[in-house]
């Protein structure tokens, strides 16, 4: 075997070793189990329904850059972010806002459904993140992120991760006869009504619920 061939083979081996275990966000498929659009009510304290209880969940398989599954990624390394360009979702403790149900198994697979989302603010889309990589479908230019049509509503209307008098004053500005604001419509019914007021009141106090 010539020195050139040996050198090329060595480069391929080194490249393969260097790529092993590094997440490939464009080759780590995610399956969303549910309907879209979906409405989800969250709180900075994380004391709302789990995703499963709300009727949706995710299944994902995490692969590396050479197409091999990555086992033993902790569930805490998975979280959701806001992919809505208009609204801003504030995550409680960042990546600790939610988690996968378990570490990835030998096939690189896990699910997210038993957790809640600890967050404030308002958003109309969610994407999946693992260890800082935003997962997206392949192929495609730039591997655009998955962005599920999930409407996240919270009583923390100003997104400071605490339900306070400020949020009460904001809610008052969108309660009838005041103009409708979609962020105050906690069940996405198209109306802000007594059901929304009851949800707000439960999380308002006392004391107001906040990021733990």
Overview of the molecule:
About 35% of the residues are buried. The longest helix has 17 residues, at about 5-20. Strands 2-10-7-5 form a 4-stranded mixed beta sheet, with no helix packed on it. It has a 3-stranded antiparallel beta sheet with strand order 1-3-6, with no helix packed on it. About 20% of the residues lie in helices and about 20% in strands. By secondary structure, the protein is α+β, with helices and mostly antiparallel strands. The protein is elongated, with a radius of gyration of 21 Å. The chain has one domain. The protein has helices at about 5-20, 50-55, 165-170, 195-205; strands at about 30-35, 40, 55-60, 80, 90, 110, 120-125, 125-130, 135, 150-155.
* Distinct helical segment count: 4
- Count the beta strands: 10
Q: Strand portion, in percent? A: 15-25%
Largest sheet: 4 strands, mixed
In N-to-C order, the SSE pattern is: HEEHEEEEEEEEHH
Secondary structure class reads alpha+beta
Provide the domain count: 1
Distance between the termini: 63 Å
Radius of gyration: 21 Å
Helix content: 10-25%
Give the averaged pLDDT, no decimals.
Answer: 90
> Which term fits the overall shape?
elongated
Helices and strands in order:
Layout: H1 3-19, E1 30-33, E2 38-41, H2 51-54, E3 57-61, E4 78-82, E5 89-91, E6 109-112, E7 119-123, E8 126-130, E9 133-134, E10 150-153, H3 165-172, H4 194-204
Parallel strand pairs: 2-10
Antiparallel strand pairs: 1-3, 3-6, 4-8, 5-7, 7-10, 8-9
């Amino acid at each position: 075997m010539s020195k050139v061939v040996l050198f090329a083979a060595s480069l391929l081996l080194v490249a393969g070793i260097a790529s092993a275990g590094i997440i490939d966000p464009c080759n780590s498929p995610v399956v969303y189990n549910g309907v879209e659009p979906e409405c989800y009510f969250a709180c900075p304290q994380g004391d709302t329904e789990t995703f499963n209880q709300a009727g949706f969940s995710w299944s994902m398989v995490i692969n590396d850059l050479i197409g091999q599954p990555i086992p033993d990624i902790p569930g805490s390394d998975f979280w959701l972010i806001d992919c809505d360009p208009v609204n801003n979702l504030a995550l409680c403790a960042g990546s600790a806002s939610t988690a996968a149900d378990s570490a990835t198994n030998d096939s690189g697979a896990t699910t997210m459904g038993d957790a809640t989302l600890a967050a404030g603010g308002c958003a109309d889309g969610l994407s999946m993140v693992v260890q800082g990589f935003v997962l997206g479908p392949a192929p495609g230019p730039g591997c655009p992120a998955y962005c599920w049509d999930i409407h996240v509503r919270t009583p923390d209307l100003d997104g400071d991760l605490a339900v306070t008098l400020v949020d009460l004053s904001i809610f008052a500005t969108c309660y009838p006869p005041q103009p409708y604001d979609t962020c105050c419509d906690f069940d996405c019914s198209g109306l802000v009504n007594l059901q929304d007021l009851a949800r707000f009141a439960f999380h308002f106090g006392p004391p107001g619920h906040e990021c733990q």
